[in-house]
Amino acid sequence: MTSQRTLNRLFVLHSWAGIVTGLLMFIVCFSGAVVVFKNEIDLWANPSLAGLPRTEPPAPLATVLAQLQARYPGATVETIALPDATNPSYFAHLRERGAPASQRTKVALRSDTGAVVGPVDSQLGQYLRMLHVFLFFGPRWIVGFLGAAMLVLIATGIVIHRKILAELFTQRWGRSFRVVMSDLHKSAGIWGLGFHILIAATGAWLGLAPLFEQGTKYVMASGAPTSTAARKPPQAEPAAMQSLDTLYRSAQQAVPGLEARYVSLRRWGTSAAEAGFTGTLTGHLASTARVDMNATTGEPKKALDPRTAGFWSLVNGLMEPLHFGDFGGLALKWLYFILGMTPAFLSISGTLIWLDSRQQRRREAQQQAGVPPGLQA
Predict the structure, then answer these.
(1) DSSP run (H or E) holding 299
(2) Under DSSP, is residue 40 helix (H, G, I), strand (E, B) or coil?
(3) 32-51 confidence digits (pLDDT tens)
(4) How far apart are CA 53 and CA 89, in angstroms?
């Protein structure tokens, strides 16, 4: 049995971990709950796109690329997003000639003809995702650290509140503010416990795993002999490109079942051109399948199939769909939204409980010191 001294220490750790991370935790959890409807929000913010026709199968990728190049001559097309269950249209990100490297234009295209509709007016859903994943401008490991902090809060909360089954149905509405909030805090945490563990673990993985991977690569590289010969970048000369649709079919042969959601183009129109197809796998939850194709020869350069790339690759491929809940339709999104709001509530209620408790201790200290009630803070 855990000693009272240990419980007190865990309570202090639980309280201060919640206070220190409370504001950021609220922002990340609230935006994460809302961002499950990212595509729906983008359509709501751009009502003209919701009325566009949905065509199965959609227009060929080659037609889409040709329409973009005709409408924006000289622009660099970087990515093309294919229509999905929510969005009926193609979307493309491109950088126009003379624009800064960080400035990109998002363009919508009809799925039936590939014709350019025009720039997308609002990217509210994407902004919410940037807020959730990067806090707009921060590195992703900050959000990963918050996921790890959430796991600490969960673990300490479980140990502190040992009578979990009894507290599931405990709500003393007629008591003081602190008691009411404490009961709400505990019951909300317990009812959503499994979901909170899932979100915290996957969030910590998505934010911190790349950091550890980069650190491992750095350590391995520092121990390997380095070549003093300067590496010359490959000469990229104009060359004929394979059709995007032909490249897509070859990518599906390299990774059977690949359903591309995004196509990325690199150095397009040159001998070093590549087309990367990233998406999901038919009948599989993993969302990180990817094939990089040589756009001049039509041969695969690199393929990632989570089903065959090893255990950790499979785990990594499962993290994003489990975290964002984008694999089970609208009903699952609503479930993620409702349960995702509870960590945001927990961050608020925990802060209010701490502030009320601190104020109560201050009053008790003043009473012991003999301060008249009217002069107490």
Answers:
(1) none
(2) helix
(3) 999 999 988 988 888 888 78
(4) 8
